[in-house]
Specification:
Structural class: mainly alpha
Strand content: under 5%
Helix content: 55-70%
Radius of gyration: 22 Å
Number of domains: 1
Strand order of the largest sheet: 1-2
Largest sheet: 2 strands, antiparallel
Order of helices and strands: HHEHHHHHHHHHHHHHHEHHHHH
């Protein structure tokens, strides 16, 4: 891993790498949005986000009630989904959600996908050096999942770019004692949580860590700036959510949906990804926290080893998986696609095949690097900033752990792929340097 002077000493090579990543990412993203045809571009989640955006714009009401097609009445406020992505969509509405609206959104999301590759390059440059940064940026640019998400009206494109931007800002802040740098990191974290609340539990953990861990107590002012800014951004939404309880409760839903081993009800392949629709106890499990504990708890007591294997092994595998079969489709698509350059163009098929081969080696190397960074950092030869590496490792392992509790659908792992690539390359560079050092002795 490089020290802060590595980038300076590398001359202009990193600018060449940045240009390569920019060109490849823009080409892949633009081609993906132009040539992908989805069987159901709207989908239930997408329709809900569009309804939120439309109702906010037309009625000033945050509601998923479908009113833009003339079938709904006056919308009733709710708080089922966080407001970040609907607010993003509302910027592209002109009148009603039509094809023009869809086109404007996917073009913007292609730009976000290109920005994700550039930010991933910069993050990798910060911790691994210019060569690894170019490799990492290209990996992000050509990953089919990170291109196909731009074609859907879902949170993934916006959440991914905000997540990588937050990681980059925080790695920079770790080397700084400027509270404003930490405040900017906190702002990006708050915005990411407003798009998808996955990492929101880290906020109270961070606040407690500032008090409990001596190393962090020494920098409590900087850390407090980040926490306060993030809380300030989240506070209005949390207050609104408290005054409009969500029905259904998404936390209860994700705990329940993730409780089925293999995402199937009674091992029936026909229920894959939709096990809850076939469960006769679904109503009781979703009605209350007590009902959820009774239903899931009784099944765990009846088959303790099976559920232990599902939660400890099966869920991480699904979260890191290539195939989105648990989401009701297959391969790298969230919604079924009738046409895609990753099927129709030779160059894109080659990218698809290459990333499919590399997927599990990269995922396993990333997880191993994250664990080694905490347990045996000396094994990663040449680490220049152990604090930054451990921060990235903590976020990766924390994301896996959080999804082991909830529903680890493979699509939820897509935004974390750039982070996992950076960790994998950090581990690979450490191993290569270690091998080189032993060869010289």
């Amino acid at each position: 891993m490089s020290d802060p002077g590595t980038v300076t000493r590398s001359g202009n090579w990193h600018w060449l790498g940045l240009l390569v990543v920019l060109c490849i990412a823009a080409w892949v993203q633009v081609t993906a949005i132009r040539e992908t045809r989805l069987l159901n571009a709207g989908g239930p989640d997408a329709a809900a986000y569009v309804s939120y955006a439309y109702n906010l714009r037309e009625f000033g009401v945050y509601s998923r009630t479908r009113t833009w097609d003339g079938r709904g009445n006056v919308p009733i406020p709710d708080s089922v989904s966080t407001p970040g992505y609907p607010l993003f969509l509302s910027a592209f509405l002109r009148d009603v959600p039509d094809q023009g609206f869809m086109d404007r959104v996917v073009v913007a999301q292609a730009a976000l996908g290109t920005a994700t590759a550039l930010l991933s390059f910069l993050l990798c440059l910060r911790v691994c050096g210019p060569l690894a940064a170019t490799v990492g940026g290209v990996l992000v640019a050509i990953t089919p999942h990170l291109a196909t998400i731009s074609t859907n009206l879902l949170t993934e494109p916006l959440y991914t770019v905000l997540l990588v931007a937050w990681l980059l800002a925080t790695v920079h802040a770790i080397r700084s004692r400027n509270p404003w740098t930490w405040a900017f990191s906190g702002a990006l974290f708050g915005l990411a949580c407003l798009v998808r609340p996955t990492l929101q539990p880290l906020l109270p953990i961070a606040a407690l860590s500032l008090l409990a861990i001596p190393v962090l107590r020494a920098r409590w002012r900087e850390g407090l700036a980040a926490v306060l800014v993030a809380c300030a951004l989240l506070a209005p939404w949390l207050a609104y959510k408290h005054s409009h309880p969500a029905q259904p409760d998404l936390l209860r839903a994700t705990l329940y949906h993730g409780s089925f081993p293999g995402f199937m009800f009674e091992d029936d392949p026909r229920t894959l990804g939709m096990a809850y629709r076939f469960d006769p106890e679904a109503s009781r499990a979703m009605a209350s926290n007590e009902g959820l504990l009774e239903v899931v708890g009784s099944r765990m007591r009846a088959q303790p080893l099976r559920y232990a294997g599902w939660y400890l092994v099966g869920k991480p595998i699904y979260f890191l998986a290539w195939d989105n079969s648990a989401g009701g489709t297959s391969d790298a698509f969230i919604y079924p696609a009738t046409a895609s350059p990753f099927r129709d163009r030779p160059a894109f098929r080659a990218m698809h095949a290459g990333m499919w081969i590399l997927h599990w080696p990269l995922m396993l190397l990333a997880v191993a690097t994250a664990v080694i960074a905490w347990l045996r950092p000396a094994a990663l030869t040449g680490i220049g900033d152990l604090a930054a590496l451990r921060f990235l490792a903590t976020i990766a392992l924390g994301a896996i752990a959080l999804h082991m509790i909830g529903a680890p659908y493979p699509r939820y792992g897509i935004p974390f792929q750039p982070l996992l690539y950076v960790l994998a390359l950090s581990g690979l560079m450490g191993l290569m340097r270690g091998a080189g050092s032993r060869g010289q002795t």
